[in-house]
Design a protein that fits this description.
The complex is a heterodimer of chains A (394) and B (259). Chain A has 394 residues and is α/β, with parallel strands linked by helices. Chain A has two domains: 250 residues, Aspartate Aminotransferase, domain 2, CATH 3.40.640.10; 113 residues, Aspartate Aminotransferase, domain 1, CATH 3.90.1150.10. Chain A has twelve helices and 15 strands. In chain A, the strands form four sheets. Chain A has a seven-stranded mixed sheet, with helices on both faces. In chain A, strands 11-12-15-14 form a four-stranded antiparallel sheet, covered by helices on one side. In chain A, strand 9 and strand 10 form a beta hairpin. The N and C termini of chain A lie far apart (45 Å). Helices cover 26% and strands 32% of the residues of chain B. Chain B is built from seven helices and twelve strands. In chain B, the strands form three sheets. Chain B has a six-stranded mixed sheet with strand order 8-7-9-10-11-12, with helices on both faces. The longest helix of chain B is centred in the middle third of the chain and has 14 residues. Classes of the chains: A alpha/beta (394), B alpha/beta (259). At the A-B interface, helix 2 of A face loops of B.
Amino acid sequence: MKIEDCRADFPITRDLIYLDSAATSLTPKPVVQAMVEYDLRYRANVGRGVHRLAAVATHRYRDAHDAARSFIGGESGTLAVTRNTTEAIGAVVAGLPWQRDDRVVTTLLEHHSNLLPWLRLRERGVAVDIVRPDAEGNLDLADLEGVVRDDTRLVAVTHASNVLGTILPVREIAGICHDRGARLLVDGAQSVPHLPVDVAAMGCDYFCFSGHKMLGPTGTGGLWMRRPDLEPLFVGGGAVESVAVDGYTLAPGEERYEAGTPPVAGTIGLARAAAYLREIGMEEVRRHEERLAARLIDGLSALDGVTVVGADAPGERIGVVSFTVEGMHPHEVAQVLDEAAAVLVRSGHHCCQPLMEHLGFSDGTVRASTYIYTTKEEIETMIATVEEISRRAI
Amino acid sequence: MLYRELPIVKVDDETFVSATHPVVEEMPLSVTVNGRHALTAMTSPAMLREFVVGFLYTERIVRDLAEIESIRIEGNAASVLTKNPFAILTSHKTVLSGCGGSTSFLDAGRLPAIRSDLTLAPETIRAATKETLDSDLHRITGGIHLVGLFDAEGGTIRIAEDIGRHNALDRVVGHGLLSGIDFSRTFAVSSGRISSEMVRKCLVANIPVIVSRGATTTTAVEAAEAGGLTIVGFVRSRKMNIYTGRERVRGASQAAGGG
């Protein structure tokens, strides 16, 4: 499928200019249809029954599970379906045997979901080293290398910043981690929807992502493990091979991480979303968004009174651009964009309050984020509207 | 491994000796289609995907490969989903009967006729038969059937081993489907008897010639006549018997004498 032909599958794009895909993406009709088909035609629990609906539902669920895993190049590892990235990161925190004086390294670029779990570990005596980017938001790899020590158990970094759109060199970071014997967790919430991702080539140990940012349903995500070496967050139905009163044996594979009825319709929808993206091609998705982001940065930077955050950051980026308008609160800008031009953007701290403080934007920023259904014309409308707003503000 | 060394007692006249002997592996494979049980096959634990695809096709449960959405094989169970699973899913009838090959039946009016202009030289048939029977597993265990699929020039497309010759034929058909082979330019060689069942599968798959080192049956010959399939049996050293479809074996039309 050609990327410019996809808009018909997203009814919301007929009326509104949706530039908040980094928060959650729109979902196309085929994804919704795949879920409706499950619910109306073969709904049954999975992995538990022998009747015909259970057989078909189980088959489709397992195929969907495999499709989600292979979408991120994860065939060699184990994928557990989770509710979202936050739950996947939480499962890693809960599943590792932490000891007092263990160390974790993370960065100030992280989303709260990849920061708070580590800050909470301090209560258990784990030391947390936080690497700070420069004033433009660039992370110096040497700074990270400097704090990863022999007693660092885990490094947790984002693959792409949800505020700046910058992409981190995760492959190089994996090299640093493995030299020091530390494991690497990559938060892929912003990368899986927008870039070709190959977790095996990346060299990470844990990879977390969300379905709802990649055209899939809310309430779906994944935790990929190079080796299934985590203690499961929950145990119970479906996660076991056998149970007796005096003990139980957990299932060997992914089932051990999916106690309870999984999101069957959701996972089927997630797999359909992955197939939809594959039909377009992730390289094409990346190129499309890179072009849009470049135009956004150029257009907004040229406006008086508008500051684009990290505009000069080198390297590749996803379609995420943050900016401020002098004399206006970001929420106010977002509200005017909505009311004046039906342009929907995010405003505030973007779940990155420490980063906002560090970069000197204590009120946060306005963030525009694109996806496959975003057009050049929509970007021009947005830039023209911001221009009007900024003129009135000055 | 398709066989296991098992302990036995070897008897020679009045002498009894403990020994081991290679025994060919057999496993039950339950096949469900859209959640309905289609069959339980006793089969060899190899080329299971090919077997399932070939079986579904030669039993005409699917009309072509594109109808299959997905096949999952886990342990002794193969689950097949077709692209529109709902017709079978909601049926109250047993649309697919059970074990023992009772799914297939011979009704010439319902079977397709061969559409092929393939002709073969007798030497091609001899060489392919030799090639098919040259199996280590066959030699070691003495308990395996072989079916080979060959192209018009006698080149080997695939040789399959199985405890049952129908299963072995399904395997090479499955392999052919998965590799996009044009069956009208192929022929099959079997180590065992050419039954009506084998004929039926060849007609459905449009394989124009079936060859065996062994015999055939009257019902097989009748079905082959009706469908225009060539049956060649008793291919041994320089000899072979052409039962039906002689026009496909070069030189056979000039046959002299006989009744």
